Amino acid sequence: MVATLYINGAWRQASDGGAHDVHSPHDQRVVARVCQATNSDVLDAISAARESFDSGVFTSWSFNERSALVAKIADLLERDADLIARKESDDTGKRFIEAQYDLADVIATFRHFAALGLKEHGRSVDVGLAHITSRIVHEPLGVASLIGPWNYPLLQIAWKVAPALVAGCSFIVKPSELTPQSAIALMKIIEEAGAPQGVANLILGPGSVVGAPLINDPRVDLVSFTGGLTTGQTIMRAAATTIKKLALELGGKNPHIIFADADIDAAIDNAVTAAFLHSGQVCSAGTRLIVERSIHDQVVTEIVRRAGLITLGGPDDVMAETGPLISKSHLINVSLYVDKAVAEGATLLVGGKRSELSEHADGWYYLPTVLDNCTSEMSCVQEESFGPVMTVEVFDTEAEAIAIGNDTVFGLSGGVWSQDAKKAARVASALRHGTIWVNDFGPYRPAAEWGGYKQSGIGRELGEHGLGEYLEIKHIWTNNAPSRSGWFRDHE
Ligand code: TXE
């Protein structure tokens, strides 16, 4: 059965009947066949969103009513969590248990924004004049294009859909063409929960085919996008024509700094997780290890040993610790980064090639890789390979560690390990990244803002700001005792 588009409250085929297969990165079997929208389908979806927004059918709901809708969606997601997790692990190749963790995070996201909506009241401003009422009100921003990536498909879309619904926006969701199934399931749930017709729309297909109207059309007010830097730059250029609001999360090149006075055992264990979780396909992956020279050999030897032990496998392999890369082209890209780094002088200590196990022959499995003797100039250090590739650099002083950690155009996240609390706090403060972990790496919470400095993006998701991205702020000044302004003369 072909999964269809959802436009203006109806499930429908693409206008030209187009569809494409989705393949498992684990073994390349076809896991789904989905419609591929045409340009006119996208325009229909934008029209539906615009008309529903302008009609007031959803904006007239109170924040409390919209919060209740979002809470209901969370309940329905909980009901269907394992079914959706299965679709997600089919599409991404990630272990089913990891997809289940992701679904728990998706549900927590909807619950966070449902609760936040209940606290949304705007505010009054005391302007010091008894006859003036001055109110700041928060209004839905309008029509939003919500474009998601393939690494955490439903989670990244949830970070956009949940606040958009609480705010009262109408929207068009476009998941990655590689991983569309969980977004389709979410749209069915939004429909079941009772969102008004035309508020939530779903477009399927590659960004190169269906993306242009989503980022160009003057009827779209906001584009919220998570994905690669190059696509982010394309979106920013397109959005400039009509000055659309932008929320961009474009990945990172995240420094992970270990001082000699750290709890070395915990630091090493976390460094392995930070770099190789989900085979490095994580925007906040700690793939750039920056280690104090005196402990370099000890730390790197142990990380290399641990990396060599990591068991790769498919969604249902109970022994597997991480899975395949998303696609053949991505695997080629990752290996090119490694080959180039070696050519530039890096030392390959482990990995650096595809898995040669027969059970991985049909999948995009790349071995956890550690590159030593790296320098800031190498492209593998500066650019996101988005694979299981850790680069190692050394430092001698605190200032040098900070300088290396900030020597990147990105600024999404970073970690610092030291048992000297004052030093750790100084480094955390000096690093120009949106999230810093001290003696930890990776945790996030829906209540805490997430986003990047510098070229890692614009705006913040989650937290309170994550709702603010979908709201306009209006000041309403009411004069309760009107009188003449008296500014201009009304006589000769
Ligand atoms: O992402 P794209 P790709 C990084 C990572 C990866 C690189 C490229 O480094 O190697 O990006 O991955 C849609 N108009 N991240 O090529 O192209 C596309 O269909 C509108 C980091 O897969 O950015 C998909 O839905 N939409 C990242 C989404 O954009 C367009 C997670 C992301 O795809 C479009 C993923 C267009 N012109 C990759 N072109 C993170 N920040 O976590 C593409 N798309």
What does this structure look like?
By secondary structure, the chain is an alpha/beta fold. The chain folds into two domains: 268 residues, Aldehyde Dehydrogenase, Chain A, domain 1; 184 residues, Aldehyde Dehydrogenase, Chain A, domain 2. Helix content is 38%, strand content 20%. It contains 15 helices and 21 strands. The strands form five sheets. A seven-stranded mixed sheet has the order 15-16-17-14-13-18-19, with helices on both faces. Strands 10-9-8-11-12-20 form a six-stranded mixed sheet, with helices on both faces. The longest helix has 23 residues. The chain is globular. The model has no long low-confidence stretch (mean pLDDT 97). Ligand TXE binds next to helix 7 and helix 8.
Secondary-structure blueprint of this entry?
Elements: E1 2-3, E2 5-7, E3 10-12, E4 19-23, E5 30-35, H1 39-55, H2 63-79, H3 81-92, H4 96-118, E6 123-125, E7 132-140, E8 143-147, H5 153-167, E9 170-174, H6 181-193, E10 200-202, H7 207-216, E11 222-226, H8 229-240, E12 245-249, E13 255-258, H9 264-276, E14 288-292, H10 296-309, H11 328-343, E15 347-350, E16 369-372, H12 379-382, E17 389-395, H13 398-406, E18 413-417, H14 421-430, E19 435-438, E20 457-458, H15 465-468, E21 471-479
Parallel strand pairs: 1-5, 8-9, 8-11, 9-10, 11-12, 13-14, 13-18, 14-17, 16-17, 18-19
Antiparallel strand pairs: 2-3, 4-5, 6-7, 7-21, 12-20, 15-16
Helix pairs in contact: 1-7, 2-4, 2-5, 2-6, 3-4, 3-6, 4-5, 9-10
The structure holds ligand TXE.
